[in-house]
Amino acid sequence: MNKVYINGIGQVPVQESWEHSLKELAGFAGIAAMDDAGMGYPQGLFVGNMLSLSANRQGHLATLLADWLGFHQKPALGVEAACGSGAAAFRAAVEAVASGELESALVVGAEKMTDSPSNEITAQLVTAADADLEGGLGLSFVALNALIMQRYLHEYHWTHADFAAFSINAHANAVHNPFARFRKPINLQAYTSAAMICDPINLLDATPIADGAAAIVISSKPELSSHRQVRVIGSAAATDTISIQNRKDPIWLSAAEKSAKTAYSQSGIQPEDIGVFEYHDAFTIMAALSLEAAGICPRGQGPRLANEGKIKFDGEIPVATQGGLKARGHPVGATGIYQLCEVIQQLRGEAGPTQVTRPYYGMAQNIGGSGSNIVTHILEAE
Fold first, then answer.
1. In 69, 87, 164, 280, which residue has its Cα 20 to 30 A from 104's Cα atom?
2. Residue 189 belongs to some domain of the structure
3. How confident is the model at residue 172, as a pLDDT?
């Protein structure tokens, strides 16, 4: 198997982009990544997206983007795995390069959510749940995560306020990220007084919908990059039941545990070696569950890790160092690529004021559904 190296990254700001189409946002990110790599057109294109058919009335997105970018005569593949689409597309590209089928690839994650009214987007997002057992009964993803969080509070005797540190940390870090949607800090009072959406989840527990795109160029040749060299040393995916009611344990992300353990095994490292972790904090409850399932803290102790300040960029396990989904924003199909770009920035030593102190190993974990499809990547700075 070939080694897989990062050659370039590109991002566009996460915001409401009324002046640009989905293909333009994706294209801008792709061009930025290719410019950063300085290697011309890669041999293949992989695109992660969830909602283009419903929100933008646009199918065939990978071919559309290949045409817009001038990727003619090259293979282009679209990948959909709900909110995990970005990381799933990256994993497909990594497999293609590692196998030797391709020498290089451009991976783009893109989503344009503001083309649809918020109530329509809510309905479109819940198509990632079980239509017979969840979505068809009127449950939204906020409601599904509220059920999980309520059970977690009951089982481990935490209060809602104990989750404030996750959001406070994300917003503090987003201040320094030019691509983040919310670049203002928040405090405990703001968190506890925020409007309730679906008890116990309030406005500051949840991520905003947004438009965005991010891209990465990978190849089997390290010399193509002028940055500090970063390579992929772990890439794993796992699934669980789509519906929460059929899950053996609704407050344990077994797919996160499985994919993380596989990635650790591939990379030859342990959880304590991770110097930065970009988790999928679509809701604060997912932040806690991800830390636990990835083996970073004991079960039921995610909030304690946050409240002790250990998740800050200069703490024991820095997370959401560029704002996470909470403050950067969550353009769903693009999120997994934003996470990887942020890990890459840290490992290159290019993260600015929130640069971590151990930029050697970084992990990104992208979640599809309510924990039903989870992709974990581990990167190493050489």
1. 280
2. no
3. 98
* Active site positions, annotated: 83, 330
Q: E strands within 191-281? A: 196-198, 201-202, 211-219, 230-239, 276-278
Q: Which domain holds residue 47?
A: 4-118+207-381
Q: Considering its fold, how many domains does the chain have in total?
A: 1
**DSSP notation for 263-301:** HHHHHT--GGG-SEEE---SBHHHHHHHHHHTTSS-TT-
Nearest 5°: the CA angle 290, 295, 297 is: 80
pLDDT, position 324: 98
Contact between 329 and 353 (Cβ < 8 Å): no
Q: How far apart are CA 230 and CA 155, in angstroms?
A: 40
Look at residue 136 in the predicted model and tell me its pLDDT. 85
E strand or H helix that includes residue 54: helix 52-55
How far does Cα 301 stand from its chain's mean position?
22
Identify the burial level of 201 via C-beta atoms within 10 angstroms of its C-beta, where 0-12 means exposed, 13-18 middle and 19 or more buried.
buried
Distances in Å between the Cα of 335 and the Cα atoms of 12, 43, 81, 97, 207 are 12, 24, 12, 22, 11
> Helix-strand-coil percent breakdown of the chain, rounded to 5?
40, 20, 40
Please name the residues in contact with 14: beta carbons below 8 A apart, sequence gap of 6 or more.
179, 180, 181, 210, 211, 212, 328, 329, 331, 334, 338
3-state SS assignment for residue 376: strand
CATH number at residue 44: 3.40.47.10
Phi, psi at 18, each rounded to 5°: -70, -25
Q: Which residues does residue 323 pair with via DSSP β-bridges, in sequence order?
A: none
- Which burial class, exposed, middle or buried, applies to 39 when counting CB atoms under 10 A from its CB (0-12, 13-18, 19+)? middle
Below-50 pLDDT ranges, the chain: none
**Does the bond joining 200 to the residue before it have cis omega, within 30 degrees of 0?**
yes
What pLDDT does residue 225 have? Answer: 64
CA distance 289 to 280: 10
Residue 192 CB: number of other CB atoms within 10 A?
13
Token pair, residue 259, equals 């994919």
Q: What is the pLDDT of residues 302-327, one digit of tens each?
A: 999 999 999 999 999 999 999 999 99
Q: Quick one: DSSP state of residue 198?
A: E
User: Token pair for residue 6?
Assistant: 């990062």
